[in-house]
Write a structure and sequence with these properties.
Elements: E1 6-9, H1 27-40, E2 44-47, E3 49-50, E4 57-58, H2 61-74, E5 78-81, H3 91-101, E6 105-109, E7 113-114, H4 130-138, E8 143-144, H5 148-160, E9 164-169, H6 172-183, E10 193-198, H7 208-222, E11 227-232, H8 237-247, E12 250-253, E13 260-262, E14 265-266, H9 270-283, H10 291-298
Parallel strand pairs: 1-2, 1-12, 2-5, 5-6, 6-9, 9-10, 10-11, 11-12
Antiparallel strand pairs: 3-4, 7-8, 13-14
Helix pairs in contact: 1-2, 1-9, 2-3, 3-5, 6-7
């Protein structure tokens, strides 16, 4: 079994402040969570930004700069910035982090999809901020748009700034799209770093059958040497990550995907989830990778490429 890359996704754009007091909102809180996750064994931290006054997902590049600078000053963890952002952000807003920061890794959504969060509304009777319920209710109309044309634009920006795409795949059709983008020369043929995201309403459900189907399809279309990881929403996080451990894949945990540590028990930090999955991995004979080892596995740093219009 290979060394294990653990990614910690520490805040995201799905959950809202009402849902957990541990959800990091301010740049300082997000920085602290990222550092704690690194110290617990994460090689990569996946970062979003939020409005520090009310926790709303934000594309403000000055907030991202504060977060990126703060994390980099305190630990050598690999930084993976979102270009998925939130369903309410434009493609231009989502892509801004690449030109500004040229991160070593960034998320790259591999197709359009519905993104339903509205089922969470019934779990809460009161809200800290008015935007929270409105945001979740509006998700019945959310479509994250990633056309082939916009994906080509994103891919060109990634190549120009030497950023490795973490190919976020929510359903099996997106794997076919990745194959088409590679065949067209839009995406690099190697390395292929793929994140299977399960359990979002609008994408594939979180089940062992679905994960196996996605892994087998990706290996058939793209080759057995692809690098893949899995992330799953809510209580499905641990079962899906355990399946990935057994299959030789990598894992993503953290409060972006799952606010809970166990039945009825909120997680106090993404680091709790990192510590647990690292312990289980060692018991299965897989050693959590350091950031330096993760760079070797992922072929980082990536060369920058001149891109012409």
């Amino acid at each position: 079994m290979s060394d294990l890359i653990i990614t910690a996704a520490v805040t995201g754009s799905i959950h809202t402040p009402t849902m957990s007091p541990a959800l990091p909102i301010t740049p300082t809180q997000i920085i602290d969570e990222a550092v704690r996750s690194y110290e617990a064994g994460a090689a990569i931290v996946h970062l979003h930004a939020r409005n520090p006054s009310d926790g709303r997902p934000s594309s403000d590049l000055d907030l991202f700069e504060e977060i990126v600078t703060g994390v980099s000053a305190r630990c050598p963890v690999l930084i993976n910035l979102t270009t998925g952002g939130s369903p309410t952000q434009t493609a231009e807003e989502r892509l801004g982090v690449i030109a500004r920061f040229a991160p070593p890794v960034a998320s790259f959504n591999c197709g359009s999809m519905n993104f339903g969060l509205f089922r969470m509304i019934d779990r809460y009777s009161t809200w800290q901020h008015p935007w929270e319920r409105e945001y979740l209710a509006a998700s019945s109309e959310f479509v994250i748009r990633n056309s082939f044309g916009s994906m080509a634009t994103f891919a060109a920006a990634f190549a120009e700034h030497g950023t490795l795409p973490e190919l976020e795949v929510y359903d099996i059709g997106m794997i076919e799209s990745v194959r088409a983008l590679i065949d067209a020369g839009t995406l690099p043929a190697r390395p292929v770093f793929m994140q299977f995201v399960l359990g979002i309403l609008g994408g594939a459900g979180a089940s062992v059958d679905n994960l196996l189907m996605m892994v087998r399809t990706a290996e058939r279309l793209l080759g057995a040497d692809i690098i893949w990881s899995t992330a799953a929403a809510g209580r499905s996080q641990l079962p899906m990550c355990l399946t990935a451990l057994a299959l030789g894949g990598h894992v993503r945990v953290g409060l972006e995907d799952n606010l809970w540590f166990g039945r009825g028990t909120l997680a106090t930090s993404s680091a709790d989830q990192v510590t647990r999955i690292g312990r289980i991995a060692r018991e299965l004979g897989r050693e959590p990778a350091s950031p330096e080892r993760a760079k070797e596995i992922l072929g980082l740093p990536r060369p920058r490429q001149a891109v012409t219009a």
